[in-house]
Amino acid sequence: MNRELDNILEQLLKFRRERDWEQFHRPKELAISIVLEAAELLEEFQWKTDKEIKKYLDEGGLENVREEIADIAIYILLLSHDLKIDLPDAIKKKLKKNEAKYPVEKARGSAKKYDKL
Predict the structure, then answer these.
(1) Share of the chain above pLDDT 70, in %
(2) Residue 9 sits in a domain of what CATH number?
(3) Range of the structural domain that residue 91 is part of
(4) What pTM was estimated for this model as a whole?
């Protein structure tokens, strides 16, 4: 990982150790927490038009969105650490796989799934 992410992870692990929360942070619970926090992020946008979203974000809602994204990232970092997944490496490998599934000449400007291109 990069230095800043390593430092953040160390802070997260220290925070968790100090509270004796490792016992609660099993892979299943962390995965559930990622989904729950993602639902909270989605709730920030639910039932709003694009215009309403822009207004909401401009008027302070961006801080709520930022916090929900941070919560998701925290759980992803902890889960990756606990499963010994090198997150940057996993992302690079997935990007390479996606590049093969979604070649520019077929996917550019299209929201279709790879098997429908």
Answers:
(1) 99
(2) 1.10.287.1080
(3) 86-117
(4) 0.90
Say if residues 81 and 6 touch (Cβ distance below 8 Å): no
| Coil/strand/helix, residue 11 | helix
Measured distance CA(15)–CA(75) in Å, rounded: 13
Verify that 81 and 99 share a domain, yes or no: no
Question: Is residue 105 packed enough to be buried (19+ CB in 10 Å), middle (13-18) or exposed (0-12)?
Answer: exposed
Calpha distance 38→46 (Å, rounded): 12
Q: What is the pLDDT of residues 53-86, one digit of tens each?
A: 999 999 999 999 999 999 999 999 999 999 999 9
Examine the domain organization and report whether 81 and 92 are in the same domain.
no
Q: Do 39 and 64 lie in a common domain?
A: yes
Q: How many CA atoms lie within 13 A of 55 on its CB side?
A: 5
Residue 24, amino acid: F
Q: How many domains does the chain have?
A: 2
